[in-house]
Amino acid sequence: MTTTYAALLRGINVSGHKKVPMADLRALLTGLGHRDVRTYLQSGNAVFTTDADASEEALAADLERALEERFGFGVECLVRSGAYLKAVADACPFPAAELEAKQLHITYFSQPVAPGRFASVDQTAYLPEEFRLGDRALYLYAPNGLGRSKLAEVLARPSLLKGVTGTTRNWNTVVKLVEMTSG
Questions:
Q1: Which positions carry the signal peptide feature in this UniProt record (predicted)?
Q2: Could you tell me where the DSSP H helices lie in the chain?
Q3: Residues 6 or more apart from 86 whose CB is under 8 A from it?
Q4: Would you list the domain boundaries of the chain?
Q5: What number of other Cβ atoms are within 10 A of residue 145's Cβ?
């Protein structure tokens, strides 16, 4: 069965660190046997189609190994199906159509995250910023953008994310990845 996936690479091409040219990423994914490989922006978003009968976790592990072999440094990756990306976008608890894309973000997690993990975060202290948990995802409404978000700083604390890989995308990227992995 052919499935289209998005690979979400964490922390590449930021301030000159962990440089992964998108042409090299496309070549690497093609070398792993994937087809129809495309990238979006320079921040580690790739879409590919595969017939491989492998889990998202196995596809991510293969990509992580290949990246380390090719570039000499580790890159955490998440691989998610187009159907999953669409379901997460459709389940957004905030009125995405009414907001600017810079105000809405999704952090995709490597595994389900129980609400208790964030119980110590007093959401009322950060209003009007808000977050909600979804299926291996966290939705963040930051009216002044992610760069100015105090709530985003708190949610990214290593103590809250211990043992979980997370990578964040703004709403424009979320929508584009859903489009790229559909049909």
A1: none
A2: 22-31, 56-71, 82-90, 150-155, 158-161, 171-181
A3: 178, 181, 182
A4: 3-84, 85-181
A5: 14
Q: How far is CA 16 from the centre of its chain?
A: 20
112 SS3 class: coil
The secondary element (H helix, E strand) that includes residue 8 is strand 3-9
Amino acid at 102: K
Fold of 3-84: Alpha-Beta Plaits (3.30.70)
Residue 100 backbone dihedrals phi, psi, to 5 degrees = -75, 145
Residue in this structure with the two tokens 């009007």, named with its chain if needed: 128
Are 32 and 62 contacting, i.e. CB atoms less than 8 angstroms apart? yes
pLDDT digits (tens, 9 = 90+) for 78-100: 999 999 999 999 999 999 999 99
- Classify domain 85-181 by CATH number: 3.30.70
Q: Identical fold at 3-84 and 85-181?
A: yes
**Can you point out the beta strands (E) in 10-157?**
35-40, 45-50, 77-81, 104-109, 130-134, 137-141
Tokens of 38: 């495309």
Distances (CA, A) of 167 to 27, 30, 77, 118, 183: 23, 23, 9, 17, 25
Q: Each residue of 36-45: pLDDT tens digit?
A: 999 998 878 9
With a CB cutoff of 8 Å and minimum separation 6, the contacts of 56 are: 5, 78, 79, 80, 81, 84
